Amino acid sequence: MPNASSETLDVVIAGGGVAGLAAALAITRLPGKPLSIALIDPAALPGAAASPAPSTWDLRVYAMAPKVLAWLAELGVAPLLDTSRTQPIAEMHVAAGAPPKGLLLSAYEVGQTELAVVMEEALLARALRTALQVGAKVRWIRGSVSALTQAEDEGVVEIHVDTDGAAQTLRTRLLLGADGKHSRVRDLAGIPFTRTPYGQTGVVAHFGSSRPHHAGAWQWFGADDVLALLPLPASADVRSAAQAHSGQAVSMVWSMPAEQAERWLADEAGHAALEAALAGRVRPAGFELTRVSALAGFELALAKVPQPAKGRVLLIGDAAHGVHPLAGQGLNLGLHGVMALHQALAERESFRDCGDPRVLARAVRAHAERVAGMQLLTDQLATLFHPTRPWGRWAAGAMNLLGYSHVLKSRLVRAALA
Ligand SMILES: Cc1cc2nc3c(=O)[nH]c(=O)nc-3n(C[C@H](O)[C@H](O)[C@H](O)COP(=O)(O)OP(=O)(O)OC[C@H]3O[C@@H](n4cnc5c(N)ncnc54)[C@H](O)[C@@H]3O)c2cc1C
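That is the input. Now the predicted structure with flavin-adenine dinucleotide docked in place:
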């Protein structure tokens, strides 16, 4: 490997998405002697935090869970989030089949003000980058991890990084693979995983709405699709495009068969067909929608990594698991994994360094049940109403009937808040 530095860093993070950034920030907040950290990403630029807010809305919009937000607040991220671009969800309308039937889950029923807070990925990433630049000493490296070796007898990982025009080698006690669903670190470390495509695409776009959303989110389960509308704040960028529609805007995530999405995303005629189908679906709930953004599609797959730690390498975020987006939990799950790592590092014995395989095994164990539970839940829900399922029709009726049980509804709401 070329020009290996003799310095050994404590932590190298491959991937500067939200999971990698949150891990970097959490590690800088550990008590005791500060750990040396490098963060590698093809797009990682230290000055990016100072860049102006995007003039259009990021198509990647997430519903962040209260527990995750409370943890981010402890790390000092909350004051850095531009609240004019965030939107709490106070209630959730869930239905099997056509609206307006279904179940209403309300945060107020359990004495809370919100079930989740909707925000753009870019907003969250920018807040994390800003927090990392205040006082924290993280070395930013623009590049990609392209090779690694674990020298177990020395207790280090050697990482080869391809950077613009040059290559460098880093040595570290702990390598975090936060490099997303196609993780190179996972492959290079030889960590086995399975990826089972759902044969579905998640189609996303933002719309101006004819009716106010009243901080509500909507989700309709069809035979082979799931349509969700998340409320967006009445912030300037969206409102100007949607002014003719009462200044209200929503973000759509429509998980549909991949061939259907391919046809509808292909050209203008396809877009018009999608909008017509959408209009038919949401009209009974009182929505008339006007698209105010581009359309984008994400291939959906269930990804399982039975052992996300190997030696001194630990996978986090989408590198470690992939779930169907119908519960809006992929990133929340990734951040719970970072929380588990943070706790395992904070509680490690003084004789163990941060990459000690036993510390990583504790982080994995603490997170494993949540990952398995979320994968099972989302996987079952994704196909629950499919006509090939013998109980599909029964399940649809049961979901709509749930709306009459206060106790069951409270349980569901509490589960959503976890
Ligand atoms: C349609 C849809 C809707 C969703 N809605 C929600 C929601 O409401 N709530 C929610 O919690 N989740 C949601 N998710 C899931 C969420 O998008 C992902 O879980 C999240 O983006 C994963 O973040 P990450 O940081 O792990 O990975 P990524 O965001 O993929 O970041 C990976 C980073 O690694 C970098 N990288 C790649 N290769 C290398 C390399 N070789 N070396 C160094 N760096 C590298 C990349 O440049 C990138 O910056 C949704 C997903 C989809 C598809």
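The chain is about 35% helix and 30% strand.
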